[in-house]
Amino acid sequence: MSSKLPINLDDLLRQRKVESDRIEYKAGWNPDPIIRTICAFANDFENLGGGYIVIGQNCDSTGIPIFPPDGLTDNQLDKIQQELLGFCHQIQPAYFPNLSIEEYEGVSLIVLWVPGGENRPYKAPKEVTSRRKDHKYYIRRYSSTIEARGDDERELIALTANVPYDDRYHHTAKVEDLSPQLMTEFLHQVDSDLDGKTTEFTAETLGRRLNVIGGPDEAIMPKNVGLLFFNEHPGQFFPATQIDVVWFPEGAGGDRFDEKTFEGPLAHITRDALSYIQTNYLKQTVIKHGDRAEAERFWNFPYAAVEEAIVNAVYHRSYEEREPIEIRITKEDLVVLSFPGPDRSIRMPDLQLGRAVSRRYRNRRIGEFLKELDLTEGRSTGISKILKVMEENGSGKPEFETDDDRTYFLVRLPIHPNEIITPKVDEKTSVKTSVKTSVRILELMRENKNITIIEIAEAIGRTTRAIEMQIAKLKEKGAIERKGPDMGGYWEVSEKTKK
User: Fold this and answer.
1) Could you tell me the sign of the dihedral formed by the alpha carbons of 432, 434, 435, 440, in that order?
2) Separation CA 338–CA 331 (nearest Å)
3) Domain 427-498, what architecture?
4) φ and ψ at residue 483, rounded to 5 degrees
5) From start to end of 276-364, where are the E strands?
6) Fold exhibited by the domain 9-161
7) Alpha helix stretches (DSSP H) within 244-302
8) Are 309 and 273 a contacting pair, CB within 8 Å?
9) Which residues pair with 24 in a beta bridge?
10) Residue 151: what pLDDT?
11) What pLDDT sits at residue 43?
C-alpha cells in the first residue's frame, strides 16, 4: 500500500514537524483507548488540526518513541483494518481517520491521520469492545486523551459546526482552482514520502492526500487553506491576501514612502517578503575593539525576530477581513501590523512577557502547513522567541499592542541603539513613486468627484492603505477636501493644483 501521509514519516515519528501532544504511539492494537483518542483528535478542542496515532511503535513511560519499533505482523495488519472500520462506525457521528500502512526500519506500522472533524462534537463509547455502549465526549489535554466534563464539555458542544475558517469549504471554487504543481512543490519541500510519485496523481488525488478538498464525489470542493497555499492568485478568493512592505525614509509622518506588495500563495509571499526585507533593510555591524580580540557584532533588526513577527501575522490574521499584512520600516523601527488582534483569552501583560498561550487558534491548518515548511516552530513560541532574539542582539525591548476590542495586532521592533538603517533601495524612486501616485489621485478625482478609495486603488494598482496615506497627505497640504458624509459625499480638488 502506498503512503497516504502528507508528511515525512521519519519527521513524524521523531516529532520534528508535529508537537508531541498531537502524536500518540501504541505498541499494539488496543481498540478502546485508540477509538477514544480518534474521537479526541476529531473534536480538535484547541483547533490545532487533529493528530496522528502510530500503531506498532512502542514508547517509554513518558511517551517518547523507542527505536527500532516493534512493528506489526501481516495478520495484525489485516485484523486492525477490519476491526477499525466497525469501531469507527460506533463514533457519533461516524468518523473515519486516514489509514496508511508504512514500512519503517524493516517493520510495518499503521499510521492513522486524524484531522479535526467537520461535524464535531464527536462522542465515542468508553469501551467499544463492551456490549454496553456508554458514549462520552473526549478531548486532548496536553499529551493525554481525557473525557470532556463540566466547562470543557459545554465549550466543546458550543463548537458545533464552528470549523476554523481556513478548514472550511469554499463553495464558489472548484478543484481545478488548485495547482498540482504547487501541491507537488509543497510535498517536495516537506520531504513527504509522496514526493516523486505525484506525476501519476490528479489534482483531486493530491488534494485529498493533503486534506485540502472534501465533500462527496458529486460535489467536491476545495478548502480555504488549499486555495491560500495552492492557488497562484488566492486574492481572487480572499481579497487583500498580501503583504505590503512600506519604507518611510522620513519617518511615518513624512511625505515620502516606498511600497512593495507581495501577492500569491501564502508560502511564497511569506518567503519573498522576508527575502526582500533581508536584502534591502537588514544590516549587520561589526565593531572591532583594540583591547580585545573579539569584535562586537549586531544587526539593526535581527532576522529571526523579523521572521517570527511576519510568520505569526500570516498564521494568525483573519482571511475574512479585507486588510493586508503591513510591514512599516523607518529609521527607528520595524512594525508588523495585522488584523484582527489576538484571542481574548490572551492577557496583554502575559503577551508582553512572552508567556501567553492561546486557548483557541484562528487558523489550524495554516499553522500546520507553515510548520511543515519550517517557517514556524509551533504553538505560542513566536512572542517568546522575538523577546529572546532581540535581547541577544542587544536591541531594545519589542512592543506588542492591540486595542480593547482586539481589532488589530501590532509588533514593533526598535532598531538597535547603535545602528541606523541605510536601505539599498533607490530613494529617488521612492520620491517619484509618491509624487506620481499623488498626481494620478488628483486626476481621478477631477474626472469623477464621487470616486471611492477602493476604485482609486484599483485604477492605480496600489493598495487601499497606500491610497489612504497619500490622500491624508493631500488633505494636509490643502490639495483636496472631502465634502459631505463618507457615504454619499464627494471630493473637491483645490484650484491651485490645476495650474
Assistant:
1) positive
2) 21
3) Orthogonal Bundle (1.10)
4) -105, 135
5) 284-287, 296-299, 325-329, 333-338
6) 3.30.950
7) 266-281
8) no
9) 53
10) 92
11) 94
Q: How far is CA 155 from CA 366, 380, 418, 489, in A?
A: 23, 21, 50, 46
CA distance 112 to 52: 6
**Alpha-carbon gap, residue 264 to 314, rounded angstroms:** 13
Fold of the CATH domain 242-414: Heat Shock Protein 90 (3.30.565)
* DSSP state, residue 115: P
Question: What is the rounded distance in angstroms from the CA atom of residue 220 to the CA atom of residue 203?
Answer: 12
What is the Cα–Cα distance from 45 to 292, expressed in whole angstroms?
55
Containing 428, the helix (H) or strand (E) segment is: helix 427-447
Pairing of strands 242-247, 325-329: parallel
Residues in the chain: 499
Annotated domain spans of the chain: 9-161, 175-236, 242-414, 427-498
Mean pLDDT in each 10-residue stretch from start to end of the chain (499 residues)? Answer: 75 89 94 97 89 95 92 95 95 94 95 90 94 94 93 87 85 93 93 78 90 80 96 94 92 79 96 95 86 82 96 94 93 94 78 68 88 77 88 93 90 88 58 73 91 85 77 86 81 75
Pairing of strands 333-338, 296-299: unpaired
Q: Which pTM does this prediction carry?
A: 0.73
Where is 352: in which H helix or E strand? helix 348-352
Grid look-up 481579497 returns 239
Nearest to 48, CA basis, from 305, 353, 368, 296: 368
Taking a C-beta distance cutoff of 8 angstroms, is the pair 173, 227 a contact? Answer: yes
Which stretch of DSSP H or E encloses residue 32?
helix 31-43
